[in-house]
Amino acid sequence: MKKTITRYTCLLAASFLLLTACDSKLDVLPTQTIDESTALSTSRDVEVTLIGCYDGMQDVDVYGGAFQVASELLGNDVELNFGGTFQNLLELFNKQITTANSTATLTWNDSYNTINRCNNVLSALDVVDEDKRARIEGEARFIRGSLFFELVRLYARAWGDGDNNLNPGIPLVLTPTRGVNEDNYPARSSVAAVYAQVLDDLTKAKQLLPASNTIYATKNAASAQLSRVYLMQGNYAGARDEANAVIESGRQRLVTPFSSLFFTYLTNGGANPEEYIFSMIVTQQDGSNAINTYFGVNFSAIPGTSGRGDIRVLPAHLNLYEAGDVRRNFFVTTNNTFTQKHLDTFGNVLLFRLAEMYLTRAEANFRLSTVVGATPLEDLNRIRTRAGLGAATTATLDAILRERQLELAFEGHRLHDWKRTRRNIGTRPYNSPMLILPIPQREMDVNKNLVQNEGY
Amino acid sequence: MVRAQEVRVSGQVTSAEDGSMLPGVSVQVKGTTSGTQTDASGNYVISVPSSNSVLVFSFVGLVSQEITVGNQTVLDVALASDLRTLSEVVVTGFGSQIKRDLTGNIAQVKGQDIENMPVASVDAALQGRAAGVYINTGSGKLGEAVTVRIRGNSSISASSQPLYVIDGTPVTTSDQGNYGGETNPLADINPNDIESIEILKDASAGAIYGSRAANGVVLITTKRGKAGKTNVSINYQMGVSEATRRVRFMNAEEYVNFFTRAANTRDRISGYDYDDPDSYTQYMLGPGGFLDYYSYGTFGTPQQGSYDWQEQAFQKGPMQQLDFQMNGGSDKTRFFVSGQYLNQTGTIVGNNLDRISGRMNLDHKAYNWLTVGLSMGLARTNNRRIPGDNAFSNPMQMAALTPLTPFTDPETGLIAGTPPGDVNLPLYYNPLLSVNYAKFLQVSYRNLTSAYAQVNFTPDLRFRSELGIDLLNQNEEGYYQSQTVRNIATASNGLGNNYSTFVTNYNTNNFLTYDKLLGLHEIGATLGMSYQQSQTKRNFVEGTQFPSNSYQKIASAATKSDGSSSETNFRFLSYFLRVNYKFSDKYLLSVSGRVDGSSRFGSNSRYGFFPAVSAGWVLSEENFLKNNNTLSFLKLRASYGLTGNSEIGDFPQLGLYSGDAGYAGAAGQRPSQIGNPDLRWEETLQADFGLDFGLLNNRINGEIDYYVKNTSGLLLNVNVPSTTGFLSQVRNIGKLENKGVELVINTQNTVGAFKWNTSFNVGSNRNKVTDIQGQIIEGGVRSMSRVMEGQPVGVFYTVEYAGVDPNNGDALFYKNTENPDGSVDRSTVTNAGYNTAQRVVVGNPNPKLVGGITNTISFKGIDFSIFFNGVSGNAINFYGVGQYSSANGIYEDNQTADQLNAWTPENPNTDVPEARFYRSNGNQASSRYIYDGSYLRLRTLTLGYTLPKSLTSRIKTERVRVYLSGLNLATFTNYKGWDPEVRTDYNANTYAMGNDFYTPPQPRTVLVGINVGF
C-alpha cells in the first residue's frame, strides 16, 4: 500500500509540473519579420524602408519591365510581333485584353504595394535624421509620383482625351495602411487630380533631391520624369525647361559608340554608362530585367545573353532606318530578329537617358518656336551624328519624332508617344478603349467604389 | 483449504491459423470471477470447481471458445481469428476500444490490406479503402504530396489535410521541398511497418484532438512484437511501371496541314497575301520560316520525319523492394524489427526514388506495475525529382513540341538544343537537356522515435507518459549545367544550389486512464495533457560561374549568387478528458473535450475549447432481438461535437514588416502583412448519426452514417483592395457545410476451404459554402477556381462556351448576363465580345461519390484479391493544357488531335473553332475545357500462392508465398486528358482543385514477389 501511495505522489507531482509549466511556451515570435509597431522607430528604420521602395519599384511588374513591355506591345502593330505563350502579353499585343489579364493585375497590385511603402516612409519623416530628411522625402515622392504617373497613363484615358476633370484616373492613396476600414476602399480620382498629385510629388522631389545620389534618384531623375509628364500634358514649355535643366546640369553626356549604351552587366561591370540619368539596378543577387525576359534571346555568339525570344522585330521596323544608321545594326537574327538593347541577362533597366532629353527639348523648342539651350536642329543632329548619320539640314516635327522613334525604340516610350501625338496604332485611333488597360477584375470585385474602363 | 471436487486443468492455447502460441489469452471459469491468462508460451494452469465447469477462452480479435471440462485435465485450444469485425480493437486517440462499443465514427484500415502496394507513401495506399475519405495522388511523380479529404473540404484558406499521428506523435506532413511540386514527408514511412490505420472522422472520435481534428485525424500504429516464437519474414518484389494513359497529339503531316490552314486564315484576316514575305503563311512555311527552322531544315525534304515528342517523356520504370521483418519475445520483453529497401524508377524520365528504412519497437514489462517501450523508425529517402508542371523542363511539356523537330541535332548528333548546336531549338526548351544535364536530388533523413512508460497503479488505473520526436533532416542539391542555359538564364556557366531543412518536432502526451467494471456499469476515463513544439530551420545557398561542369559543388562557384536562412516555430498546449460509459452492454455514452492553446493566435483568443458527446444503443442486446440470427447485430449511434483547425501557417495574427526588400546590395524592409489580433480558431460543429448492423450471424455486417459538418469562423485570406498595398488579410469570416452519407458493407460470401469476402465502401459528400460575406476568392489556372456562396468550394467559374458559328468558324460564348426583366440572356457573343459574357459556374471539382470495392478469395494455397476504386461527379479543368495545346493553333504548340476537327468551310458543323494563327478564337478560358473527371479504376489485383506446408517444411521454412500483383491496371473514364486522378502542382491551393497542367499521369505497375517466413 505504501508503495502505491508513493507512486501516486510521484504521478501527481509530475502531472502538476507538466500542467503548469507550459503556458508561456506559447509566446513565440517570428524570426524573419518584425511587428509593424516597432518597424519605423529610428532613422535607420525609415532609411531601410526607403530601400524597400526601390525594391518595390524594381519589381518585374513595375519598373523592372512591365511598364515598358506593356507600352511596346500595346503601342506597336506591324513593327514587332509577339510570338510567346504568355497569354497576358499576347492579349496586349492583339489589343484583346481580358479583365483578368495578369499584367494588368500584377502591375496594379505591385505598384500600389510600392506606393504603400512610400507612404510608410513619408509618414515617418519626423524620426529621420535631419541631414537626411529632405533627400529621403524627395526619393519617396519621386517613386510615388512616378508610379501614379505610370498608372494613370496605362489605366486611364490620355490627358486631353475628353474632360480631364471628369475622366476617372486611378485611386490616390497617400497614407500608409494600418488595418482595413471603409477608407481603404477608395474611388478613382479624376485624371486631372492624379496629374496634379504627380506634379506635386515630382516637383517637390526635384526641389528636395540632391544633384548626385549614387544609384538612387537625383534631381535630374525628377526633372526627366517631369519632362515626360509635361509632354503628356502638351505643356511643351514645361517639358523643354525640365529637359534643358537636365542637359545644362552637365551631369550626363552622350556616349559613343551607340552600342556601349547597353550590356551594362556584360561589358560595363554593372555600372551605368554616363548617358543614363536613372535606371533600376540589376545584380545577380537582386532584381531582374523583365524587358530582357521577353525581348531578349539566348544568342550564342554573345555569351551571357538570354531571354525567351518572345518579342520579335519585324522588317517594317528595320526598314525605317536610313542607310548607314548604326542603330540598324543593333539587332541579332536567329530565325527571328531581336533588338540588342535587351540581351543582357543582368542588364540594368534603363529608365531615363540623356538622348531623350535632347529629343524632348528639340521637339518642345520646335513646337514653341523657341531655342532654349539649343536649336532643334542642333539637338536633332547630336543624335543623328552619334548614330553615324549625316547631319540634317532642316528640322521638321516629323523628323524629330522619327528620330525619337528610332533612338528610343523598344525602351517603353511607344504607346505614350503615340497617344500624346494622337497617332493611330494600326487602325486604332490613339484614344481607342482597347489601348487602355482594364481595372483588374480582382480589384473591381473587391472594391465596389471603382468604375471599370469603357470596353471592359 | 481443500475443495473436494476441484479439478486442475492445464494446456496450451495456439492460433488456429498458423499454430503460433498465444500469450495473454484470458481463461475464465464461466459464471465465476476466477480466471487466469496464458503465459508467453501460451500455457495456462487453472483450477475449476467441478468437471461440469465451463472454461471460456477469449482474446481480442479471436473467436471465443467455451469448453466443458469434463474429465479432461489437459485442454489444448486453437483459437480462430474473428472475421466478424465487431470484436476488433480499434485505436482511438489515447486509447483503444472494441469496435462494437464505439460511439464515434472511426474507419480502420489494416496494415495487411495495403502491404506491398507499389506506392511510396501510406496516404496514397489508403485510396478507396475507407468510406468518406477522398484521396487524390495528384500526379505520377514519385514522393509528391497527396490530397486527402476526410468528409469534404472543411476550409478555404487554411489546410484541409488531416492530422497524422504516428504512435502518439503528430508528425510533420507539410511540404518541405524547394523544387517542383509539394513533397510528401509521409513518404519517409515504410507502409509495411504499419499494423493499422484508424481514420477518425466524426467529432466524437476527433474531439480528443480538439483544435486539430476538423479535417479528420489519421492514427497510424506501427507493428509491435508478439511473445512466443520468433518469426522472421523476408519479402522481395520486383516489377515495372509505365504511365497509365496518353493523349494523342498531331503527327508531322497533320501538324503541317493544320498550321498551313491556320496561317492562311490569319493572313486573310490581316490582309496579307500568302506570298508576302511578311505574311503568316511565309512565316510558317517559307524559306527560313518556322517549319524550316524548327525541323533543322528537313521540312519539305526527303529527310522530313515525324517525331512523337510526348513519348519521349515516358519510360518504363523498374522497381524493387526488399523487406525484412522479425518479431517475437517473452512475456516480459517483446520486439519488432524491420528493414526495407525500396527503389522505384519513375514513369517520367529523370524521376527516381529510393528509400532505406529500419524500425525497432520494443516493449518491456519491468515490473508488474511498470511497462516501458520504445519505437524507433529511421529512414533515408533519396528522390531525384522532376520539375513543377509549369516548368518548360517538365518532360510532359514535350507533348507541345513541333512533331517535325528531330530528337537529335543532325549536325552535332546531340540531343536537340544542346550547345554547340543551336540552343533555340526545339520550339521550347528541351526538357531532355535537364534530364541529362541537370539534377535535383532531395535526400531526407527521418527519425521518428517515441518512448513511453506506463504505470499500473491498480488494475483499473494507469498512467502513461509518451515522448515523441520527429526529426526531419533534409538536403536538396541541384546543379544545372551550362547546357540548360535556355531554361535557366543564369546557368550559362553552371548553376548550383543547396538547401538544408531541419524540422524538429517534439511532442509529449501524459495521461491517466481509468477503467472499471461495476456489475453492469463499465466506465472508462482518460485525462491528460499534451504539448507539441515544432521548429523549422532552412538554409539555402546558390552559386554560379563554375570552372566547368566537372565542378558541381558551390565551393567552386566564383559567384555565390544567392543565400538565405530562416526559421519558424509553432507550439500547441492541450488538456483533454474523455469518459466512456457502458451499461449492460447495451447503452453507450461518451463525453470528451479538449482545451487547446496555440502560438498561432493572439493572446486575446489563444485558447479554444472543443467538446463532444456521443451515445450508442446496441439494440441487438435487447430481448426482442437478442437471439435473432438474421439480424445478429444492430447498434444505433449518434455524436455531436466541436473540432478546430489552425493550419493557416505561423503568425497570421501579426502586423508585420519583412526585411527582404533589399535593393542593389542595400538592405531594405517592407510592410508584409496586415495584422488581426482577434484571429482565432476555425471551428467545425459536426453531427453524425450511424447505424451498425450484422446480418446472418454477422456474416454480413456494415455501417451507415449520415453527417453534417458546419464550419464557421473560417480562417480566410480575405481579399482587400490592393490599393492598400496588401492583397489579403486573414480573418475569421464565413461558413461552410459538408454533409453526406457513408456506407460500408463487409460480407463473407463463402466460408470453409473456399473463402470469399467482399468489402465495399462508398461515401457521398455535398460541400457548400454558406457564407463568405461577399468575398471573391479565386485562384488556380487562369483564376478559374472560385469560392462562392451557395456553391461547393473551388467550383470552376468561367464563361460558358456556346460552340462554333457554322457560318464563319468563330467561337461563340453565351452572354449569360441578366436582362432587365431578371431572365438570363442566352444570346451569344464571339471573341470580340468575350469580355462582356458573364462568368458562370460550369463545374465542380469535388466528387459526388467516392468508393471502393475489394473481393478477396482464398482456396487452399491460392489467394486472390481484386480492388476497384472510383470517383464520380467531379469536373477537371484542362485549360492549363488546352490554352496552348487545344487552342486552334493560336501558338505554334503541337495540338491535340481533336483540333483536327476544327471548323473549315467544308466542315461547318463542329464545336472546334476555326484555326487562326496568333489570334484568339475560342482559346479563351471557358467551359470548353471543363471535362468530366469520373473514373473507375482497377486499383490493385493480387494473385498469390502459398506452397503447401509439406513442401516448405522440407526446405526448413515456415511459409513460402509467391505472388503477382498489379496497380492501376485499368482505368475507365471519359476524361480527355492524361489521367483523371490529377491535381497539378501549378497554382495549387486548398480550393484550386481538379486542374491539369501537363501533369504526369499515374503509373501502372506490374510486379512479382516472394515472401518467405522462418
Automatic annotation (TrEMBL), chain A:
SUPFAM superfamilies documented for this protein: TPR-like (SSF48452)
Alphabetical UniProt keywords: Cell outer membrane, Membrane, Signal
Signal sequence coordinates: 1-21
Highest taxon in the source lineage: Bacteria
Segments forming domain RagB/SusD: 348-420
A Pfam cross-reference name: SusD-like_3
Major location (coarse): membrane
Protein name: RagB/SusD family nutrient uptake outer membrane protein
Source taxonomy: Bacteria, Pseudomonadati, Bacteroidota, Cytophagia, Cytophagales
